[in-house]
Design goal:
By secondary structure, the protein is α/β, with parallel strands linked by helices. It has helices at about 10-20, 40-50, 65-75, 80, 105-120, 170-180, 200-210, 230-240, 260-270, 305-325, 340-345; strands at about 1-5, 25-30, 30-35, 55-65, 90-95, 135-140, 145-150, 190, 250-255, 280, 295, 330-335, 350-355, 360-365. It folds into 2 domains: about 1-150, VC0802-like (2-Layer Sandwich); about 170-210 and about 245-365, 3-Layer(aba) Sandwich (Rossmann fold). The structure holds S-adenosylmethionine.
Length: about 375
């Protein structure tokens, strides 16, 4: 089967590398990675991908120029192989740079065409839609319609541990990408000096402990008849056995804000990491550690005019923090274009990434 793992702009290559580690060969496209896989492999992708947003099954793809062509194409898909007789199917849509530009019409036609095919195949007068819910998406781009079934359900960043958001939290998927892009290795401790609600710390600990990000959550495809129940159960058990919290050593964080810290502690506990990651209240301007870690952080960006100056001062303080710890390294994400100037040094490596809609740079020193 054909699948597409969606990802934020700039991290498609990381998703492809993650798929490679699952023995799945993928090809990067804008906004994600396309790959061929068995349903069991697609389940593994849901369970293990740290940086992808969703895993979508491509039910069909074809050039369409008229609503009639769209209808014919969608009825030609073997829906009976994907959907049980009582499936409830909700259709969403998007159109760009195509002859067919009415999203509502494309949605309605797709829905009607699926119902038509189901009625014919199952020899029923109407679709009851009383069973499992399936999310179908019709995405038309450059006159090519891609019909998609969402195998993930909730987006993959929803690992289950983050129940409350602090100030400007990082998406879990982006946080995992930053850990992977950073020069962190097994011989160096990691410290986040402005850890906020703790997303970078949890994702770093999960990577270190070989903990599948989706271990304690469900995926839409788990209730689909075409996905192999026994195999998925085994894959989950295997993932459970791989989780080794004793591998989590030397990951710590601090923040100036006591409220952010209590949230962080709650998230660490909910992530099953209580007692494994040390966090404490501390202004980074006076932070002294007795080791030389990799400082990995998501400091404030100062988007609001009044905050800009204090942010710039904080970037100078980050430089002083690094210099107070000889042998340490620092990696930070920021949307502030003057980060390097304020830090007072050119980064050894830079990468353009998006934090939501904000264009950022990930700078490694
Ligand atoms: C963008 S938020 C970090 C969000 C975090 N990555 C998360 O996922 O929740 C920036 C954090 O920097 C902290 N901060 C600001 N100034 C600080 C300082 N001088 N020392 C330590 N932390 C500071 C804020 O309290 C805030 O929690």
């Amino acid at each position: 089967m054909e699948f597409f793992a969606t990802a934020a702009f700039g991290i498609e290559g990381i998703v492809r590398n993650e798929l490679e580690r699952l023995d799945i060969h993928g090809v990067c496209e804008n906004g994600g990675v396309r790959f061929s896989a068995s349903p069991a492999q697609a389940f593994s992708a849901n369970l293990w991908l740290r940086t992808a947003d969703r895993v979508l099954l491509i039910a069909g793809e074809k050039k369409v120029l008229t609503f009639e062509e769209l209808f014919e194409f969608v009825t030609s898909i073997r829906w009976e192989e994907y959907l049980p007789k009582d499936a409830a199917f909700h259709v969403t849509g998007k159109c760009a740079r195509s002859k067919l530009m009415s999203v509502r019409d494309c949605q309605a036609i797709t829905k009607k065409a699926i119902a038509e095919r189901m009625k014919r195949s199952y020899k029923i007068a109407w679709c009851p839609e009383t069973g499992t819910e399936y999310r179908v998406d019709v995405a038309i781009h450059g006159d090519v319609a891609r019909i998609i079934l969402d195998t993930s359900g909730d987006a993959l960043n929803r690992r289950g541990y983050r129940t409350w958001n602090g100030e400007a939290p990082l998406r879990e998927t982006l946080a995992a990408a930053l850990v992977m892009l950073s020069p962190w290795n097994a011989n160096q401790p990691l410290h986040d000096p402005c850890c906020g609600s703790g997303t970078l710390l949890v994702e770093a600990a999960y990577i270190r402990a070989d903990r599948a990000p989706g271990l304690t959550r469900a995926f839409a495809c788990e209730s689909w008849p075409i996905f192999p129940q026994k195999q998925m159960k085994l894959l989950r058990e295997e993932a459970c056995a791989r989780f080794n919290p004793s591998k989590i050593m030397d990951i710590s964080g601090s923040d100036i804000d006591p409220n952010a810290l209590s949230l962080c502690k709650r998230h660490l506990k909910q992530a099953g990491l209580g007692g494994r990651v040390t966090v404490f209240e501390q202004d980074l301007r006076t932070l002294h550690l007795n080791h030389a870690p990799l400082f990995l952080c998501n400091p404030p960006y100062g988007e609001r005019l009044g905050d800009r100056k204090s942010c710039e001062a904080l970037y100078r303080d980050l430089r002083a923090l690094r210099d107070r710890h000889p042998g340490s390294r620092l990696a930070a994400i920021s949307a502030h274009p003057g980060f390097e100037r304020c830090f007072g040094q050119r980064a050894a490596k830079k990468r353009r990434l998006y934090n939501g809609r904000l264009e950022c740079e990930f700078l490694v020193y």
